Amino acid sequence: MKEFKKSLLAGLAVAGISSIALASGAVAGEGMPTGYYLGGAAGVGFMQDMDIDTATINEDADLDPGFAGVVSFGYKYDSNWRGEFELGYRRNDVDSVSGTGSISAGGDVSALTGMVNVLYDFENGSDFTPFVGAGLGAARIDIDGTLGNTVSVIDDSDTALAGQLIAGVGYKVSDTIDLTARYNFLAAPDVNVNAVNGTSVDSDYYNHAVMVGLRFHFGAPKSMPMEEPKPVAQVEPEPAPAPAPAPEPQPAPIVRTFLVFFDWDSTVLSDEAMAVLREAVANADRGGITRLVATGHADTSGPARYNVGLSERRAASVRDALKRLGLGDADIATYGKGETEPLVPTADGIREPQNRRVEIVLQ
Prior knowledge:
CATH topology of the largest domain: Porin
CATH architecture of the largest domain: Beta Barrel
Shape: rod-shaped
Strand order of the largest sheet: 1-4-5-6-7-8-9-10
Order of helices and strands: HEEEEEEEEEEEHEHEE
Number of domains: 2
Largest sheet: 8 strands, antiparallel, barrel
CATH class of the largest domain: Mainly Beta
Helix content: 10-25%
Distance between the termini: 70 Å
């Protein structure tokens, strides 16, 4: 039981470190779709030494690396959580046995598992989605071989309570397929079997598996091409001046509100956007205006917290460009609204070009 607790803590540490590292190196993209999915993975399983304990002996069985594979059926919720049912199979050959009276070893140890898993996806607006999870279920452990001189031959199986820890990362290949890489730590710390000679044997089962596989999503939303609008200035003309006794040429009205648009997940100002900013500077000079407010916005395609930072960076990009165009003495305030004030209301996770904008107001 002590080894089980140590392995459990080690697995949690590996899961946390892996997720943070993968999330910090992510590239911009989209996360997992919601709904049902079917997954499968296969790889190598590494067994910890098995205790072979009877009333008179205490031996340790060393096992070679072997096959490990799982299939799962689950559901991805609108939040970052997933739930799934998993079937697994692992098999390792006995290499040697050390301890009291041991002279020979051979055979294999296999485990057939049924687990209920709960997983959390670290969605970050990228094609890479790290995840961690834990599961609880049952393991059918089958021991078949010669284990030591005293125990002799074991050909028996036992069903034991099992738990596991999971850490990995998924990569979005398409709207319906993810490539996965994962680490599973499976533990069944209380296994009881009988040797052929009737001796009662207490043992345990700890397996570390590294696997790669695929995950298929059902009913994933299809991506739709969106037409990128060209930046346009929103004109709010001043009221017409009162007629003068003698007709004189009137100055052009001052435009006080302007909009510039951005590419998806970008803070770079296009040529069209720079033309709008030059028009804003001209109106500020003509009206003697020294205070401007730049408010950044984002669409709903990424996480809300990320979108707030993105909108702030867009507003800062506009502020810096205005200063380069000659507004160095102007008071330019910047704000970031994230996805909270869309120009075009959409559902969560939708790329909407008109919502990726900065609004400039001359006060």
